Amino acid sequence: MLRNDLLGVGFLVNEEKSQHKFKNGSVLLGLLRDGYIDIPSHKLENHREKVINIQTKTHVLARELASVVDSIISLKFAYGSVYTTTDRCCWKELEKFRNHSDFSKTVQFLPDVVKNSKAAATNKKCDNYFSKFQHWCLKYNFCHLPASVSTVAVFLGGLIQQKVSQSVLEAYFYSINWHQKLSLKLNPCADEFLTLI
User: Strands 26-28 and 31-33: what pairing?
Assistant: First the structure.
């Protein structure tokens, strides 16, 4: 069904690299597929250790907290849409303060605080990939921030047609996702359709 959907909207499907049906025991985006999506035990253990580490401290660095949040977000396929709803509500709630005279500077500063919780190399990589997405959007007169689900889907679909590696595709998706989150707008990357690509 997914193959026909992709062909129907004009994508080229590389039959040699495509797996149209999941097999039990296969890995999808770092999660196990064994009749249902499951979290590998080493990921759960890593997540548990991060949470225990934070619970035992009296002072927690923003970077440590961000690491735990990233762990939760990376497991969203197994957890379901809880993270998406929370993510959207939090940023949407902050948006209310953007035009308030007393709080606007603080709200504008928060994305920088969140961004600085990532390593400099991670930010540089995200900025580089997002810049390429931004230039593509400008070339075709699409809005890059906030981008629409269809804009991100067409962009990623083009990368797939160019046969970029899985790691490059994931880097683009992660970078677009990250910058959309930082914009304090609804994030198109949280849409279930994009998780199917």
Answer: antiparallel
pLDDT of 19: 64
Per-residue pLDDT at 173: 93
Judged by phi (left if over 0) then psi (alpha if -120 to 50, else beta), residue 55 lies in alpha
| Nearest Cα residue to 73 out of 33, 112, 41, 30 | 30
Task: Give how many domains the chain has, as a whole number.
Answer: 2
- Contact in structure between 30 and 41 (CB atoms under 8 Å): no
Q: Alpha-carbon distance 16 to 146, whole Å?
A: 35
Q: Which domain holds residue 11?
A: 1-15+28-81
DSSP label of 35: S
Which residue, 81, 98, 117, sits at the end of a domain? 81
Across the range 141-165, mean pLDDT stands at 89
CB 115, CB 160: distance < 8 Å:
no
- Same domain assignment for residues 40 and 100: no
Round the CA-based radius of gyration of the chain to a whole number and report it: 18
Helix, strand or coil, per DSSP, at residue 32: strand
Report the C-alpha gap between 41 and 47 in whole angstroms: 10
